[in-house]
Amino acid sequence: MSARGFCLFDTPIGACAIAWSEDAIAGVLLPEDDPAQTAPRMQRRFPQSPLTTPAPWVQAVIERVRDLLEGRGTDSLADVPLDMAAVPEFNRRVYEIARAIAPGQTLSYGEVAQRLGDPGAARAVGQALGHNPFAPIVPCHRVLAAGKRSGGFSAGGGVATKLKMLQIERAQLGDGPGLFD
């Protein structure tokens, strides 16, 4: 996967990075634990891509991501074009289901596996989401473990970042004990 460029942008959860090709997003990076590591990590993912000013269409995507992370939007970002050329087919199918989860809503890994038609694939769903190169455009933070438990999260800050993103979205987690209890 190649990218024409990448840039950093500030959000309420920290500095994110986004890379783009001619007509699709090539990758997004949520904040690192150490903000000084965000740009170098993106440069390692896209070594031929310069840190540069985003194209106008990329800037529009950045604003939508920023709105989401500020809790101002109900935009699912499902229409943002993604460059999935290097993404395995199983992961693409998982990401498609995750992209259909509206802000403030959640599914479990098992529910995603059921929607894939493979109820035994919950662990594989978790692994696919752990390799998500497009968070939060592919909202892996909206997929939880059984019983509305947080499960893992591979972005900087780990589960604390996942919970913060769900709180920003005012996620409805049901009647029983869950993430915010």
Describe this structure in words.
With 181 residues, this protein is of the alpha+beta class. It folds into two domains: 5-69, Methylated DNA-protein cysteine methyltransferase domain (Double Stranded RNA Binding Domain, 2-Layer Sandwich), CATH 3.30.160.70; 89-168, Arc Repressor Mutant, subunit A (Orthogonal Bundle), CATH 1.10.10.10. It is 33% helix and 13% strand. It has six helices and five strands. It has helices at 38-45, 56-69, 89-99, 109-115, 122-130, 158-168; strands spanning 5-11, 14-20, 25-29, 107-108, 143-144. The protein has a three-stranded antiparallel β-sheet, sandwiched between helices. Strands 4-5 form a two-stranded parallel sheet. A hairpin with a 2-residue loop joins strand 1 and strand 2. Helix 4 (109-115) crosses helix 5 (122-130). The termini are far apart. The mean pLDDT is 89.
